Every structure is written in structure tokens, then in C-alpha cells.
Amino acid sequence: MYSPQRPELKPGQESVWDYPRPPRVDPYTGHHIIVRFEGITIADTTRSVRILETSHPPGIYIPARDVAVEYLQPSGHHTVCEYKGRASYVHLQVGERTSSNAAWFYPAPNPGYEEITDHYSFYPQAIDEATIDGEVVGAQEGHFYGGWVTQAVVGPFKGSPGTMEW
Question: Among 7, 55, 82, 138, which is most buried by a count of CB atoms within 10 Å?
């Protein structure tokens, strides 16, 4: 098992190596989350929740009522998380531009994760911009994970080459 060197944290920072496994649902209300694609605000909320899991930047889940769902199209793609359950994916389409499997949701999450029912999580790399309280979010490296990287979160993060076995 990988044992990362614990980075020195600055005030207001969190280490992903302090996050739990199994993951924890963390209410994130009050933080202003915006998702944009093709000049359209796709999501705008202060009622999100985070999923915190060891070695991962937080996954941000936005209530469907704060998402412009008219731009989401079912993709037929599904994955399974051993903790959260079966995820369904959606394409994001604005005009002629489509971002395939840009977001996912859990229609019936496993016990303990019911709080993310009717919430979408967007891949930062699949949209034009995501912000948290005005800070532009970076994408977790790799194509499988959808963590949101900000200055408040310190790695190293799972997802880059050589980290799949962490």
C-alpha cells in the first residue's frame, strides 16, 4: 500500500490523505458552485454536497433543481462504485457541441449515500469551467475520476499514471 508523505498544510487546506475510506458525504452548503459550458450556466448552487474519499480530490454533487437539465441527455453508460452503487451518465449538449458522459448521478445510491440522490457531478475536464466561490476548479488527472481540484485541497491525488493501485 502506498504511504504518501503528508504535505505541510497551509491554513484552510485539507489533505486528501485525511479523507476517509469508505467515502463520506459532506454537506457543502454555502459554497457557491457554478458550471459553465458553451457560454451557458449549466449549474448554479449553494446547496451542493461533497464526497470525500482517501487520495481523491472532492467530488461535488449538485442538486438537480439547480442544474439546467434540458442540456443533459442520457448516455446509456453506467459504472459501479463499491460504496455508492450504480451510476448513470449523461451527455452535455448545447447547440451543436456535445460533451460525452460529462456528468453522472446515482438514481438509487447505496445506504449511507442517499443524500446524493437527485444530484449531478460534472467532470471538470468535460466542461468549459467550474468554479467554487469564484475559484476556477482543476480536474483530477486521468479519465475515470471526477474530483475537483482547488487550492484548498492537497494531494498527491489518485488518477495520474502509476496510481491506480493506491
Answer: 55
